[in-house]
Amino acid sequence: MTAPKVVVFAPGDQRSYERFEEVGCDVTLGKASWADPTGNTTEEIAAMAVDADALVGTSIKGGRIDRSVMLASEQLRIVAKYTVGVDEVDTDVATELGIIVTHAPTEANWGGVVETTMQQMLTLLKKPRQRDEAMKHGTAWRTPALTATHIGRREDGYPGLTVGIVGLGRIGGRLAQMLAPWRVRMIAYDPYQPIDRFIHANVERVDLDTLLQESDVVTLHVILTPETHHMIGERELGLMKPSAILLNTSRGPVIDEKALVAALQNETIAGAGLDVFEVEPLPMDSPLRQMDERVLLSPHVAAHNHGAGIGPGIEWGTEDVLRALRGEVPEHVFNKDVIPRWRERFEGRALI
Ligand code: NAD
Q1: Which of 176, 246, 251, 341 is the most exposed place for a label (fewest CB within 10 A)?
Q2: CA-based angle 118:10:257, to the nearest 5?
Q3: CA-based angle 28:34:36, to the nearest 5?
Q4: Ligand 1 centre and the CA of 221: distance in Å?
């Protein structure tokens, strides 16, 4: 029996491939890393994928796992991601071809994103950077520019802020839970969640335009699909209050970045907290890098914490691949519709 072939198209670290080598797999490594996700082109990945049994890795930005890649091997069983997002994988094609796609929504990942979203909101509204800078540089003591925003409702009649959550999935739902004691008004837009999810999260269900018009904080937690691509563009930014801020820890292309830059320059909105960008790494000449403290940037690290990051996702992804190679349905299947077809093709056919 020839050794099963595993292509690690974007190695997280050596743990990604050592386990496969230990069980006798033939391992091919792509060049994307967590630090630089650009990696190989689609054509290069397709060439690596010839006769592969499994493709696995973290996010890639320079290429896609598309039909050409999946057709490179008739025996491809699984495409496994170490991350929550599978937006660079054509999951519908995988389902059509009988290939399982797995992902890794570990709490270390999605829980980290929720905490970073809270940090973005507090940094933009409570001004710790400006207050600290004023002290360190001795430039100001109690100036009006250091006035921050009270977030929650108060007994004196101050109504508190309205937070609009776009996408009430794992991250949006946990965010609502974390915000509850802050006594803000929470509204959300998610046409794919049942009403009881909104009720249990104590969140009012609204349409997207209402959310944009009424929110003081708009925070994006959708997955990237053709429908959510540029779902926040010039029209939508124009609906937001001039005093509102926009937070994005989801995926860069959910926002039309050019329209966002214009909205910030024209002061159509008051600020933005961005962890993700249309092109990653964010080009050095991006106007976003030139903006003042109304814009808070981070290099797609929302979930990156000591002892967390993608480490647990690597564990999940590796285990999912090993199960698929043993002819067992892996645990964290994204395209669940494929399972009956996959069982017919691969169940019980162990390669390791
Ligand atoms: P999830 O699948 O649990 O939730 C996504 C929600 O978006 C779902 O409830 C879905 O119904 C909703 N949705 C889909 N299409 C929609 C639409 N057109 N309009 C409104 N809502 C829509 O995903 P999650 O785990 O909560 O992750 C949310 C996002 O965060 C994803 O884009 C993921 O890639 C991203 N993420 C980013 C990082 C980071 O490092 N910045 C880390 C983890 C996840």
Answers
A1: 341
A2: 45
A3: 95
A4: 5
